[in-house]
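Holo prediction. Input below; ligand is EPS.
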Amino acid sequence: MRYLTAGESHGPQLTTIIEGLPAGMPLTAEDINAELARRQKGYGRGRRMQIEKDKVNIASGVRHGYTLGSPLALIVENNDWKHWTKIMGIEPIEDTEIEEVKRKVSRPRPGHADLVGGIKYGHRDMRNVLERSSARETTVRVAAGAVAKKLLSLLGIEVAGHVLEIGGVKANPPIYKNIKQLQQKTEDSPVRVFDESAEKQMMEAIDLAKKNGDSIGGIVEVIVEGMPAGVGSYVHFDRKLDARIARAIVSINAFKGVEFGLGFEMARKPGSQVHDEIIWDENDGYTRRTNNLGGFEGGMSTGMPIVVRGVMKPIPTLYKPLQSVDIETKEPFTASIERSDSCAVPAASVVAEAVVAWELATAIIEQFSSDRFDALQKIIAEQREYARKF
Ligand code: EPS
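Structure of the complex:
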C-alpha cells in the first residue's frame, strides 16, 4: 500500500491517492471527516483553523460504502484559496503585476525550509517553498491515516495519540483502564492531555508564548493495542517496523526525535532492568511482564502495546521574528512574519496517530497480502491464534 500527497497551503486543494487497499472494506467520508476535525482542534492554533472546515471528497475507490480495490482519491479543498487566487494563481501573470500580486518572500525564517528549499530548487521567491513545506499538508496525511485507522480498527487494533509535554510542562504518564478510556479522556482535553493537573499549566504556557509572539513545542505519544505479534522483520534494515515508524514520526513537520518504550532512559539502566520478561498463559499466549521495549523486539511487533513518542520543536514562524538575511540585498533583517500557530502540539498528536496507523496498516497488508478485506480479517485471526499456541 502506498500514497502520495499533493497541494500547496493556499492552493485550491490538497489531494492524496492511496493504492493497494483491499476491496470490500467499509469506508465512509464520515470516517475521514471525524479525523480531519480532530486535527483542526487544539488550544494554541491560529486564525487559519477558523477559516478551514476540512471535509473530504472521496473522488474514487469507494462504492456504496465499500472500497473497490481501485485507487482511492481523497480531496480536501482549502477555503482560504478564495483569498489567494491571484497570489497563488496557476496562469502566467504580466511582469507589471508581479510585485503587487506575489507576496514575495525574500527573508527566510530561521528553522523553516525557506532558505535551504530556495537554494535547492532555485526559488528566489521563497513563497514557492513555504507553500508546500507548510504543515497544511498534514491534513491529507491525516486523511490517509484515517483510512489506515479504519482498517486497523476492523482488525481489532486501536490507536491513541495524546500529549505528554508542552513548553516544558510535563504531564504524569497516563494510567488508564483500557485504550478507549485513554482515547475518550484525551479527546475531551483542549490540549489532548490525560493528566488533568497538567492541562491548565499547558494552556497558560501557550497563552504566554502567544502574548510574547513566540511559539512552543512538546512531546506526543502514540499507543497501539491489539497488534498481532510478528509483523515487520529482523532480516533486513528496511523491513524493521519500528524503523519505519521512526521515519514516519520524524517526517511530520517540525518533529526532531523519536523513542520507543523507555526510550533514551534505557541508556541509564542495566539490561536486567530494561528487557521484558516473557510469560505465557492459555488466554493471552506469550506476553511480557513489562513493556519497556515499547512493543518491538528485532524490528517486529511483540503483540504488546506499541508505545512511541516524538518531539516537536517550536513552530519556526514567529510574530517576534529572529534575525535573518534578505537574499536580495544580503542585509541583515528580521525574518518575514507569516500568520502562524503558537503551539500545534495537540494537533500533531493526531498527525502522529495517522502516520503510525499508516505504517502498521501498510506492514500488515504487505505481510498478509490480500486483495479481499474478508480474507485479510481471517488471516489476521489465524496469525493471532498461531502466535498464542506457538
Ligand atoms: C503553517 C502556517 C499556518 C498554519 C498552518 C501551518 O497557516 P497559514 O499560513 O495559512 O496561517 O495554520 O497549518 C495549517 C494550515 C494546517 O492546516 O495545519 C506553516 O507555516 O506551517
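The two ends are 29 Å apart (CA to CA). That is the main takeaway for now.
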